[in-house]
Amino acid sequence: METITLGLFSLILVVCLLFRLPTLYALFAGLILFCAYAAKKGNSPKKIVSMLCAGVLTAKNILIVFLLIGMMTALWRACGTIPYIICHAAKLLRPEVILLVSFLLNCGISVLTGTSFGTAATIGVICMSMGVSEGANPLLLGGAILSGAFFGDRCSPFSTSALLVSELTKTSIFDNIRNMIRSAWLPFLLTCALYGVLGLQLHSQSAQTDLTALFGREVALHPASLLPAIVIFTLALMRVPVKYAMLASILTSLGVGFSLQHFSLTGLPGLLLTGYHAADPQAAAFLDGGGISSMVKVAAIVCISSSYAGIFQSTGLLDGLKAGLLKLGKRITPFGAILLASVCTSMIACNQTLSIMLTDQLGSELEPDARRMALDLENSAVLVAPMIPWSIAGAVPLATVGAPITSIFASFFLYLVPVCYLIHSITKI
Fold first, then answer.
1. What is residue 13's three-state secondary structure?
2. Residues 252, 257, 263, 267, CA torsion sign
3. What is the enclosing helix (H) or strand (E) of 172?
4. Which residue has the higher pLDDT, 423 or 307?
5. What is the separation, in whole angstroms, between the first and last Cα of the chain?
6. Between 111 and 233, residue with greater pLDDT
7. CA distance 161 to 353
């Protein structure tokens, strides 16, 4: 029955992909399917609801963070934080280093924001538009942007995926980040080298856009705009919980906004709810976004995905797959088996959140050490999900910047981290 249930879920996903239906439709249909499976196993409706709630509760902190991220990203746009950073960072973009600098800038912004989607929508858009104007290959440029976007999505203290891994494994996010840095320094340098070499062939074809003038018509570009970013990073370094660090940044953004950008009280609720909307259409293409509404779809995916986890945990639906992975882990190392599991779950799940949760459930017995398990998840499911062409993890950022989906093949960082770590797990070098 377990095989049939998982097979039907896979079929539902394939049908939705073929007909280009929203992923939420497939996930909701899967929810009904798994509830039916739980009922067939003799569980009462009350028990099934309890399973669903137990799964969702594992992600309660993530949902709170989503709410704060939505408000924070809107305020950072409106108070000038993101425009100020982008204006000064964009000055670094030169033809010969466009790929390398695009990767590094997206690394920086993704660490700052903790979101691949937000990174793509801000500095990613800037890098793509300016890179194309300089003659860069959109495929390579998209790969550099995607690599950089997931650099921070993986190891930022504000990343929801990092928070999810921390919640699932009951580990400290800051300890996890230190371990992630140790395992990623070589892939990072190799990625820089690849983009550096590939970028040498480029030569300038046109002048750069005057972003200072463009953004200056929307917000006051003042160094004080950096205060919200400074506050959140300072508190993060002091190991203040992410929720409180974000809240402090939000309050700082409000202070900067009212004093520097002349926020209106009447317009504030709309800003927090629907995000920032620039008056200038050209500026809007770069700066619009954020707000609680921008996180609704992702939050819905997380809620449904989390409820799956509750059912899987209580019914033992994945026990057969677990047993197979345990045997495989003895031959190709625990991480090798977890990596293989992450590929399968990413292909089925179509999103990063569910892939992480399923991989955790399948691989938890392979790696009893919680901190090692956290690192295994970060080096597998977190980075494998955006490499799946039909997954929203990679498709959304690439679509946002206007890069082809084939850019996933040029996202070198996503490949090098799991490959290098797999070699390390086998050779112990």
1. helix
2. negative
3. none
4. 423
5. 43
6. 111
7. 7
pLDDT score of 329 more than 80: no
Radius of gyration of the chain (CA): 22
Do 360 and 373 meet the contact criterion of CB atoms below 8 Å apart? Answer: yes
How many angstroms from the chain centroid is the CA of residue 229? 19
List the domain boundaries for the chain: 60-295
The region that residue 153 occupies, defined by phi over 0 for left and psi between -120 and 50 for alpha, beta otherwise, is alpha
**Residue type, position 364, single letter:** S
- Sort 223 into a burial class: Cβ within 10 Å, 0-12 / 13-18 / 19+: exposed
Two tokens at 29? 């249909």
Chain centroid to CA 218: how far? 28
Q: Using an 8 Å Cβ cutoff, are 399 and 389 in contact?
A: no
Whether residue 104 contacts residue 125, with contact meaning beta carbons closer than 8 Å, is answered with no
Nearest to 340, CA basis, from 425, 429, 409, 427: 425
Please state, rounded to an integer, the average pLDDT across all residues of the chain. Answer: 85
Cβ atoms 210, 201 nearer than 8 A: no
CA dihedral 372, 162, 98, 80 (to 10 degrees): -150
Is 205:134 a contact under the CB 8 Å cutoff?
A: yes
Look at residues 263, 234, 242, 230 and name the one whose alpha carbon lies nearest to residue 68: 242
Q: DSSP letters of 211-259?
A: HHHHHHTTS---GGGGHHHHHHHHHHHTT--HHHHHHHHHHHHHHHHHH
Statement: the pTM of the whole predicted model exceeds 0.85: no
What is the Cα–Cα distance from 165 to 179, expressed in whole angstroms? 13
